[in-house]
Design a protein that fits this description.
This protein is an alpha+beta fold and 430 residues long. It folds into 4 domains: 54 residues; 88 residues, conserved putative lor/sdh protein from methanococcus maripaludis s2 fold, CATH 2.40.420; 103 residues, Beta Barrel (Elongation Factor Tu (Ef-tu), domain 3); 143 residues, OB fold (Dihydrolipoamide Acetyltransferase, E2P) (Beta Barrel), CATH 2.40.50.100. The protein is built from 4 helices and 22 strands. Helix 2 packs antiparallel against helix 3.
Length: 430
């Protein structure tokens, strides 16, 4: 290192220190502690709360059950010689249709025997009546003026002959009834749930032929949540009230078995006791003619099919409702007052999957925050971007942070000056 460089080194270091001190003194740090920013950092969408009449809909579920389900049983014994094409699982039938035919030959013989017995009894009765007339004439021929006694007139024998006729008539009627019952007919319009016999099988009285159910309407047993009971119109009856005068709430049945399908019915009765297992009250809904003509291509209802239901409840006057998505932890919401975010604790009177009816904590005309919020603090200044889906006219657009402006330029100028000084010192060395 040359002597000139050694002499100039202290001067260079001193110049650098002076330059650094100049930069620090010309750009003092600005303390912002304790100054809350008045610039909105968050934009939110809000809904102006209003009161209106709310028609409640109660959600429930259940399975399709037949109104009447029974077993088809023969009342006479015999061999099955014929069955109807309708006599199959899933087959429909009408009341009075012959579903199964039994061999009638033995029964026809019983009818003929009964007819012969009746003919013989009537013949004996005629002969006995003739003997009674003959006894009267004989009694009068003997010159007896008083009434002939019953024994003389053969009244006991006559009554016995009449009784024989009555018995024979009853036997004939019974034989004809057994013959009629050899044709097993449908007791009502319905459908075959399952069958147990086929052609050629010998059945006796009480043998199960099939399980059938009525199709005039089906029923759905629907449980009600205890919180929904005050808002339900229950078709409750008492001993002195006719069921026909009860109000029967409408119900819509839904199924997603294949596609979204719906059926309309009504709640016809309330069960007489709470379910012991679930401690819930059940109501019974009814759908009329579920297998009638249907203009749509939807699948018919099936016994045992799971369905959901929406039951028409009471109409609440001047109700205040909010979307469920605006509720945090089930206890509070956020509103905007003078562009400031505020937390409001709420009490819910009733709630379904979509909305909640507020009991306390909110009032009409308040601005409910719809925008999902993360970790925010009550008191945060926000910008309302839209009200009820309409863009807000008085938006406070977030201001851009102020740059340093001239201060930054001063820094740059000072740096340039220092750079020039350093270059001059370097030139002096050379």
């Amino acid at each position: 290192m040359s002597v000139k460089i050694k002499k100039l080194l202290p001067i260079i270091v001193l110049s650098a220190l002076v330059f650094a001190a100049y930069i620090v003194t010309s750009n003092p740090p600005t303390a912002k502690r304790g100054r809350p920013s008045s610039t909105p950092q968050l934009s939110v969408q809000v809904q102006k709360l209003t009161r209106s009449d709310l028609a409640l809909t109660i959600d429930s579920y259940g399975t399709i059950q037949p109104r009447t389900q029974s077993k088809l049983l023969p009342q006479v014994s015999g061999q099955i010689i014929s069955i109807s094409p309708k006599f199959r699982a899933g087959g429909f039938f009408e009341q009075g249709d012959v579903l199964v035919q039994l061999d009638q030959r033995d029964l026809l013989a019983e009818v003929k025997i009964a007819q012969a017995s009746l003919f013989s009894a009537k013949q004996n009765l005629s002969e006995e009546q003739a003997r009674v007339e003959q006894a009267k004439q004989d009694w009068q021929r003997l010159g007896n003026s008083e009434q002939a006694p019953d024994l003389v007139l053969r009244k006991p024998q006559l009554l016995a002959a009449q009784a024989t006729v009555f018995s024979a008539e009853a036997s004939l009627a019974k034989a004809k009834l057994a013959l009629e019952r050899s044709n097993i007919v449908a007791p009502y319009s319905g459908r075959i749930l399952s069958k147990s016999v086929d052609v050629g099988q010998v059945v006796s009285v009480g043998t199960e032929l099939a399980e059938i159910y009525a199709i005039d309407y089906v029923e759905i047993r629907l449980p009600l949540k205890n919180k929904d009971l005050p808002y339900m119109i229950l078709p409750e009856s008492n001993r002195f009230e006719e069921e026909s005068v009860q109000e029967q709430p409408a119900v819509t049945i839904y199924s997603d078995l294949a596609t979204r399908q719906s059926w309309f019915g009504k709640v016809v009765r309330t069960e007489g006791a709470f379910d012991e297992a679930s401690q819930q009250l059940f109501v019974v809904a009814q759908i009329d003619d579920p297998y009638g003509k249907n203009d749509s291509d939807s699948m018919p209802l099936k016994i045992g099919q799971y369905v959901s239901a929406k039951i028409d409840g009471k109409v609440i006057k001047e109700a205040l409702t909010i979307p469920n998505r605006t509720i945090y932890q089930g206890t509070y919401v956020y509103v905007v007052e003078d562009n400031v975010l505020k937390r409001k604790n709420i009490s819910i009177a009733w709630q379904n999957d979509d909305v909640a009816m507020i009991k306390a904590g909110l009032e009409a005309n308040q601005l409910l925050v719809l925008t999902p919020l993360g970790q925010v603090t009550s008191g945060t200044i926000v910008n309302v971007s839209s009200i009820d889906g309409q863009e807000s006219k008085n938006q406070d657009k977030p201001k851009k942070p102020m740059n340093e402006g001239k201060k930054t330029d001063g820094k740059n100028n000072a740096a340039d000056k220092g750079k020039d000084r350093a270059e001059k010192a370097k030139g002096a060395e050379s």
